[in-house]
Amino acid sequence: MKYLKILLPGIFVWLCVSLSFYILGFVPLMNGSFKSQAVIVMIFIVLYANESALFYYKNGIKLHGLLLGIIMSLTALLLDALITVPFIEIPNGRSYHSFFSSPVLWVLAGINSITVYCFWRMKIKSVV
């Protein structure tokens, strides 16, 4: 149960980011512009990471925020490798290499980790 508790925030972030890209693909002005979609998702990931960190820390767990952010990002990347790439990217003619070499992916992972660290620094560490 302890491991599931630490993986759930990463699963939530992965699910929200994936759904955001999926939904934005149907918005008329956004469906042809990956850059526009990416910018919007970069804004939304701050909200997703905040909510995930809030969920994780609500029971008083003291895990360092940067470590939690990195674990969340690694969980999302693992789910990308197991689900997103084989079931969405490859059928659309892309590959693992094109997916994981995208700077947008790594910027999103960085924003997620930094957001969780900042949440921890302002809300959790300041209390202790």
Question: What's the total number of strands?
Answer: 0
Output the helix-strand order: HHHHH
Count of alpha and pi helical runs: 5
Considering DSSP H and I runs of 4 or more, what fraction of the residues is helical?
over 70%
The low-confidence parts are none
Based on CA atoms alone, the radius of gyration comes out at 15 Å
Query: Could you give the distance between the termini?
Result: 25 Å
The secondary-structure class comes to: mainly alpha
Mean of the pLDDT scores? 93
Biggest β-sheet: count, sense, barrel? Answer: none
- Strand content is under 5%
In short:
The protein has 128 residues and is mainly alpha-helical.
Which SSEs are present, and which pair or pack?
Layout: H1 2-24, H2 34-57, H3 65-89, H4 96-100, H5 103-124
Helix pairs in contact: 1-2, 1-3, 2-5, 3-5
